[in-house]
Amino acid sequence: MALVLQNTKGDGGLNRGHIGTERRREEIGILWEKLQESLPYLDHVVVYVGASGSERVIALAAQLPASKVTFVGCDCGLPNKEALIQAADLDDARRILCECGGRRTMKLLFQNFMETGELLLAVPA
Ligand SMILES: [Zn+2]
Questions:
Q1: φ and ψ at 96, to 5 degrees?
Q2: Span from the CA of 107 to the centroid of ligand 1 (angstroms)
Q3: What pLDDT digit, counting tens, does each position of 91-123 carry?
Q4: Lesser CB count within 10 Å: N end or C end of the chain?
Q5: Ligand 1 center to residue 49 CA distance, Å?
């Protein structure tokens, strides 16, 4: 089992436009709890690292060994992202460079995984 994570800050919001902010915050909280519970059973996590607000998700990924973690991110603020990753002791985790926002890449990774059970090492342009 693998899990593809994308933080919901910015325009990538969960159920955007359909539910109020308060409700959405609650749902994200529930999602987060579920995620923490299932973490020990995951073979791999794919984590999207945005330009800001990724500390939480990186800290979560750090509960797994680096060999089970793939970070996906664009090159905006890359030194800062790398610093967070190194601070979390995940220097050996796999990286995939993606477009800004990472939507296309995350979608392709997810679809490919659902179809083949394999994680792509890179996403075709
Ligand atoms: Zn970018």
A1: -125, 125
A2: 17
A3: 999 999 999 988 899 899 988 988 998 888 888
A4: C
A5: 10
